[in-house]
Amino acid sequence: MPALQRPGHRAFERTARVELLPSPGPERAQAMNTRFKHTRVKSASHEEFVRALPCLICGDNTTTEAAHISYADMRYGKFGRGKGQKEESIWVVPLCGHHHRMQHDFSERAFWREHEIDPCRVAAALFIRSQDYQTALQILEHAKDR
Asked: What is the mean pLDDT of the chain?
């Protein structure tokens, strides 16, 4: 038997120890999962920027509010908000007060379907181009493009 495969040899002992380690228990597995917890993105400057834009639906720029998109959409890695939590700053679009109320008065998905707009796509594009007013206006102009 070669020296590396004999009990008592250092290399054999190291290899044997690695092979004999027990699999992690449920506590360790849970700890490993929580280590990579999703952190929410909050940006007051981006939300203020969105409030300076015209309404995504009607173009009114006098009463614009930063409207949060509350439903989950995993096509964009959007988890949705938890109970009692505000949505992330990434997921905001500019809406006038009237359309913001309508967004929350009905099914939010139905509201956006009726207006033929994918709000997550628009919100993500606005976040990428935050503080670039001219590009943001073009994003809003092309919001209904498929």
From this structure: 82
